[in-house]
Specification:
single chain, alpha+beta, 2 helices
Length: about 80
């Protein structure tokens, strides 16, 4: 199982709606509104890095109000 942290920038005033939609993406967990450079943070899990990237590109980045994202893959410590 692979894990990534996805940092999402939303259009002004759309952060709550974006977070709600991200919660419905398969594999998305721990979706939170945050302050700073990004508006929403989610942990995304999948069977492979490709599955996570597919979820980010095809499901998260296509949500209305998403301006951009930054994906950080996690490695065991």
């Amino acid at each position: 199982m692979e894990t990534a942290i996805v940092l999402i920038t939303a259009d002004p005033g759309k952060d709550r709606a974006v977070a709600g939609k991200v919660k419905g993406v398969p594999g998305a967990e721990g979706v939170s509104l945050v302050s700073g450079l990004y508006d929403v943070v989610a942990t995304v899990k999948g069977p492979s890095a490709k599955a996570i990237l597919d979820a980010v590109y095809d499901k998260i980045r296509t949500i209305p109000g998403v301006r951009g994202s930054h994906t950080m893959f996690c490695a065991p410590a």
